[in-house]
Amino acid sequence: MIPSFWNRIPPRWRPALFRFGLNLFPAYRATGGRVVAVAPDMLGARVRLPLGWRTCNGAGTTFGGSLYAATDPLFALLLAVNLGPDYVVWDKAASIRYRRPGRATLFADFRISVEDLRVVRETVAREGRCDRHFHVDFCDAEGVVHAGIDKTVYIGRRHPPSGENQPMPR
């Protein structure tokens, strides 16, 4: 999931390269969302989703597809860069709950805790796979929640011990 050159990049450059690379990636760029900040420890990121002609629906509010698409890769990518190349990480499921129409620029703050990483590593070591659930809210500048997105991310071992088949995501 993460390119092989990633580990050759100095750690202090990784947050900036992550933000720059994801914002230039055509599929993410098309969402209208922009990663505006990445935590120095690579455990968090902030996404801005402006209301504009590319993110506006017929009612003049933020298009639900833009809300979801702007969140799509973040939890999986943050997990992948923190867990390293011995793990495979995939988005597995998502749901979105709309609370109020977005009529301005919205922000989402993604955060993965050190405890999340510890639990994932322990569960994968014990069971060979793990499903982890995360939640993020899109809020306006005043902190009013406009939508909540729940994500389920699959994490497994990249190379199972010899003679063992890796379970497929369900």
From TrEMBL:
SUPFAM superfamilies: Thioesterase/thiol ester dehydrase-isomerase. InterPro entries: DUF4442, HotDog_dom_sf. It holds the Pfam family DUF4442. This is DUF4442 domain-containing protein. It comes from Rhodocyclus gracilis.
